[in-house]
Amino acid sequence: MNAAELQAAWARWLIDALVACGVRRAVVSPGSRSTPLVLAIADAEAEGRLESTVVVDERSAGFFALGQSRATNEPTLLVCTSGTAGAHYLPAVIEASESRLPLVALTADRPFELRHRGAAQTIDQAGMFGRFVRRSIEVGPPDADPRAVDGLLRTAVVATHAAVWPLPGPVHLNLGLRKPLEPSGVSDAALQSLEDRVAARLAGGLPTVARPTIQADDVALEEAAARIRRSSRGVLVLGPMSLTATPAPEAVEAFVRATGFPILAEATSQHRFGDADYSSTCDPFEPLFASPQFLSDNEPDLVVHMGEAPVSRALGSWIDKSEVERVVIGTGPLSEPFNQAAQVLVGDPGCTLQALAQRLSAPDGLADEGWRQSVSEASATAAEAVETLLAASPAETLAQGKAVQLAVQAVPAGGLLMVGNSMPVRDVDLYCRASARGVQVLSQRGASGIDGLISGALGAVSATGRPTVLVLGDVSFQHDIGGLALGPAASRAEAPLAIVVLQNGGGRLFELLPVRDLKDIDETFERYFLAPAKVSVLEGSRAFGVQATRATEPGALAESLAHAMAGPGVTVIEAVVDGAAAAAAIGRIAATVDRELGGRTGS
Fold first, then answer.
1. Are 63 and 91 in contact (CB under 8 A)?
2. In this structure, are residues 88 and 153 in contact, taking their beta carbons and an 8 Å threshold?
3. Is 595 part of any domain?
4. CA 28 to CA 486: how far, in whole Å?
5. Which tens digit of pLDDT belongs to each residue from 351-395?
């Protein structure tokens, strides 16, 4: 049997098996050693069984694939050549692991006889992603034994299964390939027999993963219900959740109706701009938990927490310091950095909320009505403080909060909003009121890094074809400017992507941290922490053939956003704001709220 032809078939069988197991998209970075895999992917795409995107930069490719996974909850296949190419996947692999998103990284490798011998472009790739992958599989060399072929097909089953259950995340397949890498075009009866065997196996269907629904234990549910019954000042905190892991609005509404608990829904929870308009939403809540007066008068006595750790700095700080009793609901490993949850309920979030609501079944809720009214009035005070501050900005200037408001308002019903880390994700919570708009929110709260945001947004657009607005800072933009090379992927999806860059002069979140208050820190702070971006947003974007514009006042930004969302393609909008004022505004709002609440209490 011809070795080159067997190797080509081996690569093709693996790709075909992955497709049969539900892989619908592949992201390929060019290289030589991966030739057999790439030819197999090209054939699958030509036959309409797979959609592929070519991304030269493996780091950008990883985040592009992650964006596809985040938006679809389906594993995207990453394929690259040998050597350090796969190492560039590591940041995206880490984020996929921490965010619990399915991904399959397939790295081509040198054959065993070239490893550990100084051969070019050869490193130790086995297990290169360490503990960040759910499974690392060294795929054996091509083998004509029918049992080996069956094992190869089942490797695809194992990989896709491990990527989605029981804990979704990345999987690594490493495949050694030997020259010649191109098929010879010479077949024989023995190879044809194996081809027929594979065709029969695939035609019969490979096992697919049925994701089971985990139900919380009845005894644990009753214990949680008892805790809730004892509470008269409970709140429901909805932290960051993926598009598919969040409970349905009906489940949230049932729980709130039974308990009377106010909802603290972060934008990343999918319940701030989703399909339901909850009357009990406390919005905004960040200034309240930064207010000593609010906490003195209205401190909750119980938190029912669902989703990842809160993005809100004030809420997280209060939970940590107050050691308030908490019931945490999740489907698996928990984001519990406070190390103090009184009880953990593991199960489908929606089913858990419904089960609790049925056990409580109080017609008017359990929370104290006077306290609920006080919280609602405090929330209205906070909302008024936010709007008053924004209204005070001169008409010819663009406040960062206003820029964020306009960006969120530009997302059409059914669209996607992607928010960068550091200040943008927190600004959305502070400045954008909850509303039923049918908008879903993407974020990278797994490792909470600023890398790969542009690539991730483009991946989401390519996979869904949904109009999308990405809001990120100038440092984040510079960090992933190479992702703009993927602009044609969004154009192919015939969907608009508006990238709003908050040009605020660097990492302004650091201005909210204690380091900023150190004596004689100004020069050191600007150089090492603020680190203003050096890349021109407009020139950098246009270098990648992407349309770009600058807005310095609200009307211009609104107009630019409307134009960007009117048709397919990528538009970068540099929103020039006063960075120092943006950081100061957060403190001013908190101080105003605390003062107003104190005056209300004393009247």
1. yes
2. no
3. no
4. 12
5. 999 999 999 976 657 889 999 999 999 999 999 999 999 999 888
Q: Is residue 597 part of a domain?
A: no
**301 vs 291: CA distance, rounded Å:** 17
| 33 plus 177 within the same structural domain | yes
pTM for the structure as a whole: 0.94
Look at the chain and report how many structural domains it folds into: 3
Same domain? 570 vs 526: yes
* String of DSSP letters for 403-452: HHHHHHHTSPTT-EEEE-TTHHHHHHHHHS-------EEE---SS---TT
The DSSP symbol for 262 reads P
Name residue 500's amino acid.
Answer: V
Beta bridge partners of 238: 265, 306
CB neighbours of residue 556 within 10 Å: 16
Percentage of the chain exceeding pLDDT 90: 79
Whether residue 503 lies inside any domain: the answer is: yes
Domain region containing 250: 218-382
State the Cα–Cα distance between residues 490 and 360, nearest whole angstrom. Answer: 48
Same domain, 351 and 318: yes
Q: For residues 119 and 256, state if they share a domain.
A: no
Radius of gyration of the chain (CA): 26
DSSP-assigned states of every residue in 542-602: HHTT-EEEEE-SHHHHHHHHHHHTTSSEEEEEEEE--HHHHHHHHHHHHHHHHHHHHHHHH
SS3 306: strand
Kindly report the CATH number assigned to the domain that includes residue 336: 3.40.50.1220
- CA–CA separation, 489 and 465 (whole Å): 10
Please name which of 21, 19, 128 lies closest in space to residue 83, comparing C-alpha atoms: 128
pLDDT (tens digit per residue) in 93-149: 999 999 999 999 999 999 888 788 888 888 889 999 999 999 999 998 999 999 999
**Tokens 């609005």 label which residue?**
249
Residue type, 502: L
**Is 338 a member of any domain?**
yes
Residues 160 and 46 in one domain: yes
Q: Provide the β-strand partners of residue 135.
A: 171
